Amino acid sequence: MWFLINSPGNATVHIQSIDNFEWLSKYNTFFKNGNSDPRYTSEMIYLLFYLPEIFPSLNKIVVFDHDVVVQQDLSGLWNANLKGNVIGAVGTCQEGKTPFHRIDAFINFSDPLIGQSFDVNSCTWAFGVNLFDLQQWRTHNLTAVYHKYSQMGSKKPLWNWNVARMPLGWLIFYNKTELLDRRWHILGLGHNSGVDRNEIDQAAVIHYDGIRKPCAISRRSSKSKTVLNSACIVDKSGRTLIA
């Protein structure tokens, strides 16, 4: 619908349906985690861990969450040097800030295998704007690593399955992550009122990862008008099509 009313210019648009991924059916067991809520068991959540299978002819890809707004040219992000790592991401630990964003706040380090394999003081990194080297991914066979930890997590309480994509990602790409400059991805919008306005203005991508998405804010609010116009998918009459 978006591309019917907004010309993509010279970009090539290739829209795929999950129904076309027939190979995905053999992995159904990896989406069952004891949670009946479809928000946490949907295949869509875990497609991130099958990027090499979804795009077998690609060697590199940038992945965005649905609730981001791109504000600047991203060619610099595309050309970022991952130094042999698999993923480029913005770190979420900042000097002088709360240690909440350490990996042990989300993953159960009382499990012996977890405790022996990972540094409890490791910092997390952000989903939402990520550069992937799919060649390195294939070299390390990381989709199989995803299957390994997904199976482990289904048998014992290693993390909260309501946020399972994040802990799984931090385990799978452990020691294979290159931290990017923070300006590429400013997150915290929609729940963190302390995000600096200058950072927002200068950011290449801003991320409404909180519950207050722009389309959920009243369109009569003059403060949110600019962001609403850029972040919401609307028809020509101004009616919201997708939030």
UniProtKB/TrEMBL annotation:
Look up keyword Glycosyltransferase and say if it applies: yes
- Its GO CC terms? Golgi membrane
Tell me the route in metabolism or biology where this protein functions. Glycan metabolism; pectin biosynthesis
Sorted keywords for this record are: Cell wall biogenesis/degradation, Glycosyltransferase, Golgi apparatus, Transferase
**What GO biological process terms does the UniProt entry carry, in alphabetical order?**
cell wall organization; pectin biosynthetic process
- Superkingdom, taxonomy of origin: Eukaryota
Q: EC number(s) of the enzyme? A: 2.4.1.-
Q: How does it sit in the membrane?
A: Single-pass type II membrane protein
Q: Where found? A: Golgi apparatus membrane
Q: Does the keyword Transferase apply?
A: yes
The family note in this entry says:
Belongs to the glycosyltransferase 8 family.
Official protein name in the record: Hexosyltransferase
Organism encoding this protein: Trifolium medium
